Amino acid sequence: MSPLSRRRRLFLKAGAMAAAAGLLAGRTTPASASASTVTWKNWSDSAQCTARALVAPADEAAIAALLRASGGAVRCVGAGHSFTPLVPTGGTILSLDRLAGLQSHDKAAMSATLHGGTRLSQVSRQLDGAGLALRNLPDIDMQSLAGAISTATHGTGAALPALHADVIAMRIVSPQGDVIDWQQERHADQMAAARVSLGSLGIITRATMRVVAAHNLRRKVWLKPVEEMLQLAPELARTHRHFEFYYLPFTGYAAAITHDAYAGSDIQMPASQDEDMLRDLRQLRDWLGKFPQLRRWSAARLIDADLTEHATNRSFRLLSNVRPTRFNETECHVPREAGIACVRDVIRTLERRNEVFFPLEFRFVKADDAWLSPFYQRDSCSIAVHAAHGEAYDYLTSEIGPVFRKHGGRPHWGKLHNFSSAELAALYPRWKDFQALRQQMDPHGRMLNPHLRALFGVPA
Ligand SMILES: Cc1cc2nc3c(=O)[nH]c(=O)nc-3n(C[C@H](O)[C@H](O)[C@H](O)COP(=O)(O)OP(=O)(O)OC[C@H]3O[C@@H](n4cnc5c(N)ncnc54)[C@H](O)[C@@H]3O)c2cc1C
């Protein structure tokens, strides 16, 4: 999502609106365990399983030994922050929580090697300590590095690609327990496949990332009527390093957020009021959901349209945020030129449902060359729609999915979707090449689970 990250309180009734907020960070630890099995679930409760074991080996040798010793199904877990059932297995869940941290960095080459289990928050803090930073970040930094790159996790920026595009080398423990090193110059095809591989080629234990010098950013947040925002969005994306907007359903308003290079060193970081804003939007829905006209009328009077927020800080402290309130989410990446038409259609479709209140997020992502990257050879706009945790979310796929399809969308691998294997094959020019390499790496399909078998068209 992430909606609410960078927005300020938009309504005037400070503190008056009460609502329940879920509080739970993602976990890779088991939800419960018995002597012989362990139950696991993801951050949003949309995916769960009973696995034979959840193991967290201490080093690569232990991972290799585990894969050599057993023949059963193995699925890797990072932070469990994918909404799709990528992790669930009846076999073994393998966590890299103990293989975390910055391994080395090279300031001359502007690269850094990190263990696969490193959470993005730790990646940023350790790189910052070395005077370095990732080029871009997603809305939160709870994810593991390997999990994030494996699903093509991205931030926003018309000229900035997703995280995996900056991976220049990788170490993978194969399903047979062999330790393999791939580098961009010598293994171009393998790298193009492994950058976004949904945990299907092996266990990523290290990734070498292209990095930039540590830097400060300046954030600006402001509101606009949604029609004006849709007109301005392409220009804002062209003229700002990072631009995105959030549409606030049933209000007629959108919040623009820009982040640009900031040469100064003073830190200005107002406390986030995102949770207040979300509570207000929910409260308005609870009170007036059955009367959409009245809801819009009230929102237009409650919103402080002149509100502007400024912040300056280290890039990673501004780009990623925390999300205490849980939700479920779908996201598709459409060709850049289809972005505005698609989001108009999405808003129209979404507002047929009076229960909707979570902001919709619209971002820009640059093209790259990973075979299963949703940004494969096309600059894209990303449109994300959320439903509150505990509320129905089927419509994210059944009603918003067809709108995404109409505009040529490729789904985020970690966010809810129901694209079939045949649809995906048609959307990805190197689909067959990926499947051939996957089959070669894992001939017995031990890295697959039911979700991946369905996506890849591999019978059980
Ligand atoms: C609150 C929230 C905000 C989000 N914001 C964004 C956002 O701004 N942008 C965006 O693009 N996405 C976003 N996402 C989605 C999230 O970034 C992805 O789903 C990401 O994959 C989650 O990382 P993880 O470490 O939790 O991986 P998991 O969900 O645990 O796993 C994801 C995949 O990676 C594989 N994997 C994990 N570790 C390894 C390994 N060591 N080797 C091989 N395969 C591995 C798993 O098998 C699985 O297939 C968000 C999700 C949430 C819940």
From TrEMBL:
GO terms for cellular component: membrane. InterPro entries: ALO_C, FAD-bd_PCMH, FAD-bd_PCMH-like_sf, FAD-bd_PCMH_sub1, FAD-bd_PCMH_sub2, FAD-linked_Oxase-like_C, FAD_lactone_oxidase-like, Oxid_FAD_bind_N. Keywords: FAD, Flavoprotein, Oxidoreductase, Signal. SUPFAM superfamilies: FAD-binding/transporter-associated domain-like, FAD-linked oxidases, C-terminal domain. Residues 1-33 form the signal peptide. PROSITE patterns: FAD_PCMH (PS51387), TAT (PS51318). The keyword Signal applies. It comes from the Bacteria. One of its GO terms (molecular function) is D-arabinono-1,4-lactone oxidase activity. Residues 47-214 form the FAD-binding PCMH-type domain. It holds the Pfam family ALO. NCBIfam families: bact_FAD_ox (TIGR01679). This is FAD-dependent oxidoreductase.
